[in-house]
Amino acid sequence: MKHILEYYLFKGIAFFVRLLPLGMVRWMGVVLGYAFFHLIRIRRSVTIENLRAAFPEYSTKQVKRIARESYISLAVSILEMLWIPKFTKDILSRELHIENPDLIEEKRRENRGVLFLSGHIGNWELMAFGVGKLLGFSYLMVVHPQNNPRVRDLVNGLRTSGGNRIVDMRLAGRSILRALSNNESVALLADQSAPRESIYVNFFGRPAATFEGPAVMALKTRAPILMCFCVREKDYRYRIWFEELEYDDLVGYTPENIAALTERHVKALERVIFQYPGQWLWQHRRWKHRLPDH
């Protein structure tokens, strides 16, 4: 019954959102973000705790400001995702500024596939939809499983509406290797908490269990890695850019190289989050596991 109620609530909100112009959708996101932070307070304590640990030098006022911005950013991103069917190519070209699209084409011409890595910053869903739509290519998206299969199907329908394919991260290994070997592109988010027995990398000063999959796939295939970032500007339009993550010096598929490459992409993401802390998903329990000997 809970899943059915969630499904119809999701459908109802999506229907209502698509009746509105984009500017009003974003305004609604701001209002909802304020409400969830100040009134509903879902995961507020987790958010505050994460920020205090990441920025110990910040005052309580600064921490709460970033936390509130994070809730607003998340709410705006969710509503914009629901508005995806209304995003025409003209609207996308107006709302998304892709700084260095030539880098993608350059890497695709190497015929080794391209591994796109990002995190939950800005609007990652709109970036995934918009980049392929504007630049004329598609990719395999590795997605986290959802508890509600009805809602999952609706969300995945939005994700694939631009021509992208999706694969459950629990079953993704062979699909990723096959896609890269066929010179296709693969996109995944690499900033969620991994199982307790995973690699631990310092993330904002604390060891965080981190998925080794991106490093494993890159070292096995030698596919170029492009870190991709999407940040919201003051006018609520987005700036998107790509950075190649170099790893030519890591020769061989070894535990040491896997750990080294994992640390590199974590640090690349950390640097951008540090610049735009209010746009990252601080509600996530990123540090829920501790090193086994702690």
Number of helices: 11
The count of DSSP E runs of length 2 or more, i.e. the number of strands, is: 9
Instruction: Estimate nothing, just give the exact number of structural domains.
Output: 1
**Share of helical residues:** 40-55%
As laid out across the biggest beta sheet, the strand order is 1-9-8-2-5-3-4
For the sheet with most strands, the description reads: 7 strands, mixed
Structural class: alpha/beta
Gyration radius, to the nearest Å?
19 Å
* Outline: globular
Which stretches of 5+ consecutive residues score pLDDT under 50? none
Describe this protein's structure.
With 294 residues, the protein is of the alpha/beta class. The chain has a single domain (2-279), classed as Glycerol-3-phosphate (1)-acyltransferase (3-Layer(aba) Sandwich), CATH 3.40.1130. Helix content is 50%, strand content 16%. It has 11 helices and 9 strands. The strands form 2 sheets. A 7-stranded mixed sheet has the order 1-9-8-2-5-3-4, sandwiched between helices. Strand 8 and strand 9 (238-245) form a beta hairpin. The longest helix is centred in the first third of the chain and has 23 residues, at 60-82. The chain starts with a helix and ends in a 19-residue tail after the last helix. The model has no long low-confidence stretch (mean pLDDT 96).
Quick recap:
Strand 3 (139-143), helix 8 and strand 4 (165-168) form a beta-alpha-beta unit. The chain is built from 11 helices and 9 strands.
Topology record:
Blueprint: H1 2-17, H2 22-40, H3 44-54, H4 60-82, H5 89-95, E1 96-98, H6 102-108, E2 114-118, H7 124-135, E3 139-143, H8 149-160, E4 165-168, H9 173-181, E5 185-189, E6 199-203, E7 206-210, H10 213-221, E8 225-232, E9 238-245, H11 255-275
Parallel strand pairs: 1-9, 2-5, 2-8, 3-4, 3-5
Antiparallel strand pairs: 6-7, 8-9
Helix pairs in contact: 1-8, 2-4, 3-4, 9-10, 10-11
